[in-house]
Amino acid sequence: MHAPALSDRSIEAYADTVEAEQLDRLRSFAEELEDDRILHVNSTATGGGVAELLRSIVPLCNDLGVDTDWLVLDADDEFFAVTKSIHNGLQGDDAPLTDPMKATYRSVTERNAAEVDDEYDLVVLHDPQPLGMIDRLRERLPDAPIVWRCHIDLTDPSPDHLAFVTEYASRVDHAIASRSDYAGVIDVPTRVVHPSIDPLSEKNRSLDEATVSSERDRLYPLSFDAPLVAQVSRFDPWKDQFGTLAAFRRARDEIPGLQLALAGAMAGDDPEALEVYERVAKDAAGEPHVHVLTDLPDTTINALQRGADVVVQKSLREGFGLVVSEALWKRTPVVGSTVGGIPLQIEDGRTGHLVDPDDAQAAGARVVDLLDDDDRRRTFGANGREHVRDRFLLPRQIADLFDVLLDVLDRDR
């Protein structure tokens, strides 16, 4: 296990971004947790949405006076191949899960659990990767409740994969899901906490004109003087970059000079990412207006999302899909699919458009509708910014998390 390096953060910096009532609620909950020590555990410090959230949440918890640590599993590619199979199976894929794979999972998680030697009052395990630590953690911290934070789309899980995960998840004290449709899949008390974006992170903060200009230069030969559609996602089969390519080709027939940027990261715990990237790049080869980009700095992603005319998120499964809120926060309308948390973020016909996940032609048509109407795009963008401000910014998420943790700790409130 290892602890990622973190920058100092101050909750006071959010005073100009969120309502005072949200910050007051957050500080009130933090005061009730000031004598507790919390541990978060996940599988990677880079490239994934969970790592991105924890990189903001953990230092802000400490700034609020809640003693919080973050540890990341030490594991190899063999383990991550197993956990990616589990991830895919929970999202409905008939991925293999053999006895040797289960043995690898148990060996790595138990070894990591044995390395937890500090005292904690509560432990939060994120997603399936660290769930196998539960028995060792129970022995080491018998009085500390264990919470499972599931960020995965559990709409239609494979029975075999669900049974394997349930073997561990059914023994946690509480679970947190990203939306109500996922609650109840595991038979433990479950609360819903919607994820959020950090408006002050490098990916989401305001950019001055000089920074925007230099970041756009970095993206050359992509042009911001011609119509531009973008998708920002990990290279993962569930993100459906191929469907976005099909939607782009449909829209290109009506929008001359249309460009597409497919920007994605390589998550540290996803051995499938490089293969997906190579397949996407091969599909786009020979199309000069399609740009397949990987591992861009967060500031460059920020500039791309701001400069795009429309963002597409046509996922087939989606735990939540915070890239939607990232784009809306930057006043860029989004065409997204009706899966996971995407419909919670897109108000259809007000901040963007929703389409069926398998309907690339409809996605392309909605892109054309937005590109053909500058006033609609601007109105959707303004509406999207306010929708995210009200519902999907970081202080609200931390307050909701604290509320759950206080209940799990059974505090008299």
How would you characterize this protein structure?
This protein has 15 helices and 12 strands. It is of the alpha/beta class and 413 residues long. It folds into 2 domains: 11-196 and 393-408, 3-Layer(aba) Sandwich (Rossmann fold), CATH 3.40.50.2000; 209-391, Rossmann fold, CATH 3.40.50.2000. The chain has a 6-stranded parallel β-sheet, covered by helices on one side. Helix 5 (134-140) links the parallel strand 3 (122-126) and strand 4 (146-149). The chain starts with 19 loop residues before the first helix and ends in a 5-residue tail after the last helix. The mean pLDDT is 94. It comes from Natronoarchaeum mannanilyticum. Belongs to the glycosyltransferase group 1 family. Glycosyltransferase 4 subfamily.
Round the Cα radius of gyration to an integer and report it: 21 Å
How far the N terminus sits from the C terminus, by CA atoms, comes to: 35 Å
Count of helical stretches: 15
Using the alpha-carbon principal axes, give the shape.
Answer: globular
Largest sheet, in brief, is: 6 strands, parallel
Count of the separate structural domains: 2
Overall pLDDT: 94
CATH fold group of the largest domain: Rossmann fold
Q: What is the H level of CATH, i.e. the homologous superfamily of the largest domain?
A: Glycogen Phosphorylase B
The helix-and-strand class reads: alpha/beta
CATH class of the largest domain: Alpha Beta
Summarize it.
By secondary structure, the protein is an alpha/beta fold. The chain has helices spanning 20-32, 49-63, 77-90, 99-113, 134-140, 159-169, 209-218, 241-252, 273-284, 298-307, 323-329, 342-345, 360-371, 374-391, 394-408, and strands spanning 37-42, 67-72, 122-126, 146-149, 174-177, 190-192, 228-232, 259-264, 290-294, 310-313, 334-337, 352-355.
